[in-house]
Amino acid sequence: MEATKLINAFLQVCHNRPEVFDRTGAIAGLESMLGELDKIKQESAEDIAERIKKLCDEYPDLAEAINANRKPKPKKADDKSVDKTLDNRFTELSKVLQEIVNQSQHG
Fold first, then answer.
1. pTM for this structure?
2. What is the CA radius of gyration of the chain?
3. What DSSP string describes 45-81?
4. pLDDT tens digits along 8-29
5. CA distance 19 to 4
6. Which residues contact 47 (CB under 8 A, 6 or more apart)?
7. CA-CA distances (angstroms) from residue 62 to 24, 48, 107?
8. Going by C-beta distance under 8 Å and a sequence separation of 6 or more, which residues neighbour residue 24?
C-alpha cells in the first residue's frame, strides 16, 4: 500500500473505528506518536507510513482493521463516546498526518 493510502486508512480507523485502539492496546502507540509530534511534523509520508507499519507489527488487530478499512463500514452508534475521546486526544496528530498526506499528493 502506498504511503499516503496507508496514512489515510490509518486516519479512517482513528476516526471511524476508535474502539480498535482500546481493544488492541494500540492506544499506547498513538500516545507514543503524539509524544513525537514535533519530529513527525518534519517527516515524509513514507517515514510516517513506516511508523504505522511498525505499529501494525506490534498490534496485528490494528493492521487488520486498517486493511479492512479499504471498504467503508458504517460506524456503530453506541461507540460515539469512545470516538469523541479519541478525537479529542489525538486531534493534533490527525491534523499533522492529514497535512503531510496533502503535501505528498500535491507536491
1. 0.74
2. 13
3. HHHHHHHHHHHHHH-HHHHHHHHHTTS--PPPGGGHH
4. 999 999 888 888 888 988 988 8
5. 23
6. none
7. 7, 16, 29
8. 59, 61, 62
Residue carrying the nine cell digits 502506498: 2
Amino acid at 23: R
Chain length of the chain: 107
- Nearest CA to 45 among 95, 98, 91? 98
Sorted by sequence, the CB contacts under 8 Å of residue 69 that are 6+ apart come out as 9, 12, 13, 16, 17
Q: How many CB atoms lie within 10 A of CB 74?
A: 6
